[in-house]
Amino acid sequence: MKPAIALSLAGCILAIGGAVAAPTARAASLDARYDVSLLGLTLGTASLTGGIDGSAYKLDLTAKLTGLIGGFTGGRGSGAASGSLNGVKLSPANFAVSSASSSESRTVRMALDANSVAAVEIEPPIDAKADRVPLNDGHRRNIIDPLSAFLMPVNGKGLANACNRTLQIFDGAARYDIKLSPAGTREVKLEGYSGPVAVCQVRYVPIAGHRALRPSTKFMTENKDISTWLAPVAGTNLMVPVRVSVKTMIGTAVLEASSFKVDPGVTASAAKRD
User: Fold this and answer.
1) Which residues lie closer than 8 Å to 75 by C-beta, 6 or more apart?
2) Strands 251-264 and 226-233
3) By C-alpha distance, which of 135, 125, 126, 129 is closest to 213?
4) Is the pLDDT at 62 greater than 60, yes or no?
5) How many domains does the chain have?
6) d(CA 147, CA 162)
7) 158 pLDDT tier (thresholds 50, 70, 90)
8) Lowest mean pLDDT among 62-66, 227-231, 250-254
9) Which residues, listed in sequence order, are joined to residue 252 by a DSSP beta bridge?
10) Structural domain for 42, as ranges
11) 3-class secondary-structure state, position 20
12) pTM of the model
């Protein structure tokens, strides 16, 4: 599994209210650590850091393959996103992601304004293919980036409402929907958090920019074995994935939190000073 896949896995599928909601507090610092596995074998690690300060948010994501696979591929990736939060609406401003392995590397940078793409740069450019579904201007409006999709605002109904959403995502090259629907709740015990999580079933719906004839596109479009678990970011009205499971063509890939630490009322910049 390449680091870009680990980043995309988390970014594409992501976002408790009731007893955990705190709608009047609007600041928190987040530090989450994840293990990345395939067929039950740990392939790497990922981390998500950042925070919310009033109406602004900033996130940083890193992923690295370890063990024999990491030694052979040198795989690693990183991403960053920032923007504003108005109630239950996210408005990204900047998004960037880079991935590298022993055979290839790519960087995507995107500026956004009012949930529309203002500018995008991909280096090196993605190769043109005859079966790539064309993008138009409409595909670049009313969207969020894959990393901002980690933050899932809720409107106070908490667990019962967390999974009722469709994420309209543009990653700089492709436009797709991630549709979430409720699938119950669970209790988890992680370093930094113990309590309920919302369990969501997930469907991937390609819109444009994808390779229509690729077997993997057909597989993912028909894939009914995708799920995510959402946990609260205390001090905010936001939830974040602590587990993402995706059936792939070679087995089930899982991104699962080993720790989930939140400092409510503390901004990310203040946390770094401490």
Assistant:
1) 1, 2, 3, 44, 64, 65, 69, 99, 100, 101, 102
2) unpaired
3) 129
4) yes
5) 1
6) 18
7) low
8) 62-66
9) 247
10) 3-273
11) coil
12) 0.85
